[in-house]
Amino acid sequence: MWTIFKHQWLRLFRQPTLVMTFLGLTILFVYFMGGSQGASQITVSTFSDELPTEEVNEWLDTLNEDETFLFVEAEGEQVIDQLRMNEIPFALELKEDSYRFISGREDAELSTLVQYVEDVYATEMRIQAVKESGMIQSFEWLPIIELNTSARTETASTNQAYRVAVLVGMTLYFVIYSIFYLMENILEEKIMGTWNRLIFSPVSKTKIYTGQLLHYFLAGLFQIALSFLILSYLTGIDLGHNWLSILVVVSCFTFAIVALGMLLMGIVQTTQQLQVLIPIVATAQAMLGGAFWPLEIVSNPILLFLSDLMPIKYGIQGMMGAVIQERSLTQLGEPIGALLLMGVLFMGIGMNLMERVTEKRSI
């Protein structure tokens, strides 16, 4: 087993171009998508046809106290034209005693923005009601004590969630490519007859499979860990301190992908077939599993059903739960269990197909 394991690592060290290429692509994509765009404020065009300019400015000052959003004053007609031309996703209209959101398309930030504006308006309306009632004159105001508190809850900022989602999604997407292309060595050995000689050698099949698959598993873990380390330093994305949950989720995802790779090795017969199949499987997983866009914006029931069959969906779900919501292992039982179940099924079917191919070739 260890001889096979070391042989695979020596082969990787002699030709590290593949892993380094996908590692570089991961860093490039995440840096520009999550490092630059994700770190900026969310601009909200704000207008009013009823309020005077002074009152609009007061509301803008109040709404801009949170650095996540940037409310900017705009002309009503200009905002409507921008919405029609799909230049902005939404806008805020201020009224005498209320407000209204105008949305031109679905956007992931809208729900968080609505909640924030609703909280600000509710607070201001209560303060205004107290002032108008005259009750404020009977209060004795005491010096204010400032408290700085911080907390990580399930309603973490959209900005942070977006950047983490980009980091996790792109990292898991490109590690799929790395593992699949590394496992092409198994197919080449199968075509050249080396795999048959290994199977019929005195070394047990368990040791052969373990030595091979352990190498691909650790190679995938190494790429993910290196990607997280480099990108968290370059982009400042905080992955928190829930390391045990992160490690378990990443390990289960890598196991599921290695198992899926074994299934592909049992299905294809030539390297040309594999090179065609890898981009299809990897990209389809990323698109259906939520690596390119959040699944919350998908409403088609067929696509949602297909997403439930993608290991990357549960990898992203588990990582977001571990990083953003700081969930424990017991709370992450659903994605972890789904990844383990998929891994066992893929591995069982893949090994069975590999054995059948080996028996046919030996005959």
For the largest beta-sheet, the strand count, sense and barrel status come to: 4 strands, mixed
Can you write the helix and strand succession as a string? HHEHEHEEHHHHHHHHHH
What fraction of the residues are assigned to beta strands by DSSP? 5-15%
Mean pLDDT: 80
**What share of residues is helical?**
55-70%
Q: How many domains is the backbone divided into?
A: 2
* Number of helices in the DSSP assignment: 14
Low-confidence stretches: 138-142, 144-156
* Order of strands in the sheet with most strands: 2-1-3-4
Overall form: elongated
In angstroms, what is the radius of gyration? 27 Å
Termini separation: 26 Å
Summing up helix and strand content along with how strands pair, one would put the structural category as mainly alpha
Number of strands: 4
Concise description?
With 363 residues, the chain is mostly helical. The chain has helices at 2-14, 17-37, 53-63, 76-84, 110-133, 158-182, 184-192, 194-199, 205-235, 243-267, 271-289, 301-307, 311-323, 333-362, and strands at 42-47, 69-73, 90-94, 99-103.
Architecture blueprint of SSEs:
Blueprint: H1 2-14, H2 17-37, E1 42-47, H3 53-63, E2 69-73, H4 76-84, E3 90-94, E4 99-103, H5 110-133, H6 158-182, H7 184-192, H8 194-199, H9 205-235, H10 243-267, H11 271-289, H12 301-307, H13 311-323, H14 333-362
Parallel strand pairs: 1-2, 1-3
Antiparallel strand pairs: 3-4
